[in-house]
């Protein structure tokens, strides 16, 4: 990234007393301030969430030019008769769900949710608002509604969404050997993230600790992933799956946002960048950039 443009990967945060301060919403966004509304390839229709606070947006896949145009209204059952409603904040893991929605070609409504803070104007929908806690009692983002179906937990949302669009082939066939591998590396991603957070927090390592926790230690988890991807283009099988998007975002976070992984790793960085070059990634980051500007994030 061009540091002169203010989009350096380290421009939006710093370590304070050993902890990383949250950076702004522009972490993975292109170094541009052009808004989606002025881009003929990406248009939004917006309406007020509340008269005095945030905005919602309806994102329709039909507004985008794509090399593989598909219908964006893939409703699989009666529970899917309503559009997807996506609760997010540009500073949250909702960035990844936005990417998944774009890769799937979904039509969805976005409900911005502010983080609870004394400085947030009264009446703003926040992660501690009763309205949002009815969606996710944990008060965490992102969340997704599809009719009467409510989903929380980022990876669960992404995998479920991928299964709603089988023509995209973002999950291996049920019962296949690749499906077993898919489950393996889906669960491993959680272990890897815990191991990375240990490194971020500078948690002392010991043999007793390594034996007592499922992910062992940072070096073992990191080297396991690296060895798996050394001669592979995809995480599972021979085509893109939702896990590739998840790992790409995870690796981007910890090479750019909280740089505890080597930014020049010859295996993991090319793997990450391959998927961040997808058109769906650029669309998702641009849409989040617009939302961040609307929210003042």
Give structural attributes:
globular; alpha+beta; transferase activity; Glutathione S-transferase Yfyf (Class Pi), Chain A, domain 2; Glutathione-S-Trfase_C_sf; 2 domains; two-stranded antiparallel ribbon; Glutaredoxin; 9 helices; 10% strand; 37% helix; transferase; six-stranded mixed sheet; single chain; disordered N terminus; 297 residues
Unreliable stretches (pLDDT < 50, length at least 5) are 1-55, 61-82
Radius of gyration: 19 Å
Structure summary, number of beta strands: 8
Using the 3D structure, state the CATH architecture of the largest domain: 3-Layer(aba) Sandwich
Number of domain modules: 2
Helicity, as a percent range:
25-40%
Along the chain, the helix and strand elements come as: EEEEEHEHEEHHHHHHH
Distance between the termini: 20 Å
Supply the CATH class of the largest domain.
Alpha Beta
> Strand fraction band?
5-15%
Principal-axes shape call: globular
Let me know the largest β-sheet. Answer: 6 strands, mixed
The CATH topology of the largest domain? Glutaredoxin
């Amino acid at each position: 990234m061009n540091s002169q443009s203010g989009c350096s990967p380290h421009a939006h945060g710093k370590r304070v007393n050993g902890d990383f301060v949250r950076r702004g919403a522009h972490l993975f966004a292109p170094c541009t301030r052009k808004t989606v509304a002025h881009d003929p390839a990406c248009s939004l229709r917006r309406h007020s969430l509340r008269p005095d606070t945030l905005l919602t947006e309806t994102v329709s896949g039909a507004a985008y030019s794509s090399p593989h145009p598909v219908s964006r209204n893939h409703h699989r059952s009666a529970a899917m008769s309503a559009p997807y409603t996506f609760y997010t904040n540009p500073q949250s893991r909702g960035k990844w769900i936005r990417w998944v929605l774009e890769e799937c070609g979904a039509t969805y409504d976005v409900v911005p949710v502010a983080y609870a803070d004394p400085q947030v104007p009264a009446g703003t929908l926040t992660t501690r608002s009763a309205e949002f806690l009815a969606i996710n009692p944990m008060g965490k983002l992102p969340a997704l509604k599809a009719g009467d179906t409510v989903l929380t937990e980022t990876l669960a949302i992404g995998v479920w969404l991928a299964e709603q669009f089988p023509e995209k082939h973002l999950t291996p066939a049920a019962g296949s050997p690749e499906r077993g591998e898919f489950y393996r590396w889906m669960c491993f991603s959680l272990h890897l993230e815990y191991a990375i957070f240990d490194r971020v927090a500078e948690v002392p390592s010991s043999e007793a600790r390594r034996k007592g926790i499922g992910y062992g230690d940072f070096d073992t988890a990191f080297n396991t992933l690296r060895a798996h991807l050394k001669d592979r283009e995809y995480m599972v099988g021979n085509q893109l799956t939702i896990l590739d998007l998840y790992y790409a975002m995870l690796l981007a976070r910890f090479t750019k946002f909280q740089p505890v992984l080597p930014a020049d790793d010859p295996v993991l960085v090319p793997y990450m960048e391959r998927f961040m070059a997808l058109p769906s990634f650029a669309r998702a980051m641009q849409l989040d950039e617009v939302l961040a500007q609307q929210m003042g994030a």
